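S.,

Sequence below, as promised.
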Amino acid sequence: MGTGSQEMSMKIGVILHPYDEDKPAGLARTIFELTKGMLEIDKDNEYIIFVKNKPHKHPDLPGNNWRLEVLGGGMFWLDHLRHAPRANVYIFNTPVMPLFWKPPKSIVIALDFAYWHLSSRGIKNQIRRIITFLLHKFSLHKADLVIAISHATKEDVVKLFGINKEKITVVWCGFKKICAVEAKEVPLPQKFFFFAGIIKLRKNVFNIVKAFYEFNKTHPEYYLVLAGNPAHGEYYDAILHFIKEKKLEKNVLFIGHLNDKELSYVYGHAEALVFPTLIEGFGYPVLEAMDCGVPVITSDQSSLKEIGGDAALLVNPYNPDEIAGAMRKLIEKPDLRQKLVQKGITQSERFSWHKAGRELLTLAEKLNT
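The prediction came back faster than expected:
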């Protein structure tokens, strides 16, 4: 990719990692959209996009003021930056910096620290957890500026790693306007609550199913639809066992991964999004649903309480009865439902990738002065 002919005022190095995964998860999507958000509004500065390995496909990024640099693999691959084309400011999209080289100016982005908050089993996982924590602590202290994607993450950076809060700026992410995508029909029952995400402990799916069981006793005509990549393991098996034991097989539907067109359809027909997860750096489904005009039940913890605000029903994610109570409220109080729909649309308008990109760019330029 060419760098354009005009005079560039600053060189910004962006470490785009992870990138080029087969099935990009939330982290990869977030850092790609943040980078794209900057490039869409900035035609004046030059960007060097650093990746670990040669990608299968060139990043689909806008503009002609950026180029790709492959650093190469290995355990200390980030230290290859020392010999790579030099930038004025480096943006590390995760809290991992080179161990043996200090960039001229550096920004580290902190998303969430779920690995620390949720216990891990097995000695290998415990060792990996401690090494990750120490790497994050080293990098967050070494960086000139830390960007947290929510106030909840900022609090974590201060409490867990002892970083001065003056060094941390909150930049909220944007989200994808799913319901702007043409909908493709998915065969589903008429009345259903919806969850989107992987079937893992941190997503709190078991408590959602338990809550639905309580709710379903008085509202048997409703269904619970769970979308996400097919799951396996102890946690998933325990959920299946509960569903069978409580004879919920007909009312709890696992529909697998949805593309954007299918997701657009499902959001458009859901009674509400039920998303009381245990920890989120940033809860994209909450904003996607709000933008679609769908009421949201979400957690009163982590970033979700600030993203949901007073536009969502906030519940204790560890209390299935409270989640069930919120589901009942939405069914039995149409005025409340309508109020949440209106508030949700207004709340979602506060977030965009353009806004995030502009804030990130402003911080990079300020750091370079």
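DSSP finds twelve helices and 13 strands in the chain.

Coffee later?
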